[in-house]
Amino acid sequence: MSVKIALAGNPNCGKTTLFNALTGSNQFVGNWPGVTVEKKEGKLKGHKDVVIMDLPGIYSLSPYTLEEVVARNYLIGERPDAIINIVDGTNIERNLYLSTQIMELGIPVIMAINMMDLLEKSGEKIDIAKLGKDLGCEVVEISALKGTGIKKAAEKAVALAQSKKSAEVVHSFDKKVEDAIDAVKVMLGSQVPEEQKRFFAIKLLERDDKIVEQLNTVPDVSNEIKALEDAFDDDTESIITNERYVYISSVVADSCKKNGAKKLTTSDKIDRIVTNRWLALPIFAVVMFIVYYVSVSTVGDWATTWANDGVFGDGWHLFGIKSLFIPSVPSIVEGALNAVGCADWLSGLILDGIVAGVGAVLGFVPQMLVLFIFLAFLESCGYMARVAFIMDRIFRKFGLSGKSFIPMLIGTGCGVPGVMASRTIENDRDRKMTIMTTTFIPCGAKLPIIALIAGALFNGAWWVAPSAYFVGIAAIICSGIILKKTKMFAGEPAPFVMELPAYHMPTVSNVLRSMWERAWSFIKKAGTIILLSTIILWFLMNFGWVDGNFGMLEAEQLNDSILATIGNVIAPIFAPLGWGDWKMAVAAVTGLIAKENVVGTFGILFGFAEVAEDGSEFWGQLANSLPAVAAYSFLVFNLLCAPCFAAMGAIKREMNNIKWFFFAIGYQCLLAYVVGLCIYQVGTLITAGTFGIGTVVAFVLIIGFIYLLFRPYKESNTLNVNVKSVAKAK
Amino acid sequence: MKTLKEVAVGQTVTVKKLSGAGPVKRRIMDMGITKGVEVYVRKVAPLGDPVEVTVRGYELSLRRADAEMIEVE
């Protein structure tokens, strides 16, 4: 018989460390159905039939955050056989608050007090026998980091699960509150098992709208609520929260010996400097510079160049030694295909489709690994919470989190790790908003397009490149303001009441594990979409009709390809943007493989097999084929529209929801189109004085845009999650 | 009537009452800011918002707009 044990506890209490210690490498990481909350499951070391479920870190079982709703639905709906409640011994009062709620679920509970060693160092003591008696469950001491006591805790949990002895609620609130709870318990009748009645009764009294969905008949408790609220002059939710803390204070006073004199801990000393009023911003800038410099400019750049130009390009030299040449994957595969006499189209498919697609996925991985080490370190040492603290004031105006700064900074190098870096943002709304807007920042691959347009049409004017960044930042700010007022985003509240955990040195194994989990999820979840789309586009570019015969084309016959046909069909769509030429449309489409491809595609279409990175060979031809305003509109469109397939894969991975993925891509393309259109139409009005339907449309769009920016809105208070689907889907 | 928003850095105050309703209030209370608890205002972020307080032995950051919901003395 298999036993299910859930790990529950506050964020930053050492839950992940304990989970890793209990399960080792025997883990399965996924997502809870329908939401982007991470779900981790593993088998207890040495017990094949014991499954450990790592619940999201939560402070309470309130209905207001996704993590809390997910955790409580699991606890109520799936009913694990036992719960290990991890409690941070150095922060016991707030940690016990969740414990009092877990005790009410009618599931066997064992409490594991973590960080006892730290506590002893500071001269404080917890009498665990007394604490256990006061709380009505067994209490054990552990140190998740050192691994002490965890085996005992796990074995006790297994024994407890098999005995099926559910936790008995020994805590009690004020008499009036208890009377009301008893009255509601009676009303619940037989639809709720006896041991869960207290939980349901309290939730009903708290007016918890999510619990109502889990009951067949909802008793009318308005009289009880009213009586309580009149007696305490507060709302029931607050009354019960208050009662819990009153109870906890009495328990803590009874069983914990606090150190009277407050000493400044090392963590306090670090924090004094790191978030100092004057030093915080310079320190933040230095930290960000190091992250950027290492993960984008130097190590990250070498890693990407090595992966893209070496392993998947022209080959590379082991340790840089000339004689140790290692051929690239494509050339090895090509050699093998030639040796077996493979048909042209098949080797084309394998080389330019599949191998190139795999290369597009794996090429980003080395750089990501570097970045993820930084992120894991910053997160687990406690600095990431300070980043949110320092930057909150600026970013919250645009519906973003202070932590959005990092994805955007990384996005200037490459959007793929940029999007993946959004994982550090806990708040669902802030994270989605960040994912949608990060790729607006011009990444490294968009620089050749900027250089091309600036060089060909603006004589290399100094302002073109800065204006591209300005457009990107403006797009982020405007999108933030507009989107936070839309229905898609308005539903979720974002209280910024955040714990600033104590600084500590993360363990190497935790950092590496977090790095690998994220990189692997990119390869697995983003890989398929990147690979598939690369293959499809390869087919469209390399096949077509020449003299009535369908077949594979040479590279310079791109204008006979299926893609060119499609380009001809879709070109009129871009006419209002000033670049209705099919060549431009085709170039924009090939930009989806990688943005720098836009320049190369132009080269082929203008009759050059090889061109420089900025395409200087055909500047003259390009300048003759369209006016400067149209070229700028083309540039802006390419900056803002859907990013490359790799970045789209990352977006899909991070959204973890197909509807949100299409919403993000659709929004980006729509915004790019509207901005491109307005630039061209208003631009031609100013430069050439042309006035037509397009100009009118542009002005209507601008007015609409301004309306969307400034329309009033009210932040909603309810969490928009379909609880039933989360609870039932498995 | 004084709220936590007006408390100067370095001062310790006692919470008297919480106004407002809904998720923000619940969250503030979940984090341990309840009637009668002592709150020490530790510092203000470099840009003037949010503030960092010590409550029940740990550090918490909250926005000034939310701090306004907390009546203190």
Automatic annotation (TrEMBL), chain A:
It is found in: Cell inner membrane; Cell membrane. The keyword Cytoplasm does not apply. One of its GO terms (cellular component) is plasma membrane. Its main location: membrane. Pfam families: FeoB_C, FeoB_Cyto, FeoB_N, Gate. PROSITE patterns: G_FEOB (PS51711). GTP binds at residues 9-16, 34-38, 54-57, 114-117. Residues 2-163 form the FeoB-type G domain. The chain crosses the membrane at residues 278-295, 345-365, 371-389, 433-457, 463-483, 522-541, 561-579, 586-609, 629-648, 660-682, 688-710. It is a multi-pass membrane protein. One of its GO terms (molecular function) is GTP binding. Keywords: Cell inner membrane, Cell membrane, GTP-binding, Ion transport, Iron, Iron transport, Magnesium, Membrane, Metal-binding, Nucleotide-binding, Transmembrane, Transmembrane helix, Transport. Mg(2+) binds at N20, A21, T23, G24. SUPFAM superfamilies: P-loop containing nucleoside triphosphate hydrolases (SSF52540). Belongs to the TRAFAC class TrmE-Era-EngA-EngB-Septin-like GTPase superfamily. FeoB GTPase (TC 9.A.8) family. Probable transporter of a GTP-driven Fe(2+) uptake system. This is Ferrous iron transport protein B.
From TrEMBL, chain B:
One of its GO terms (molecular function) is transition metal ion binding. Residues 2-73 form the Ferrous iron transporter FeoA-like domain. Pfam families: FeoA. InterPro entries: Fe-transptr_FeoA-like, FeoA, FeoA_core_dom, Transcriptional_repressor_C. It comes from the Bacteria. Keywords: Iron. PANTHER family: FE(2+) TRANSPORT PROTEIN A. This is FeoA domain protein. It comes from Anaerobutyricum hallii DSM 3353.
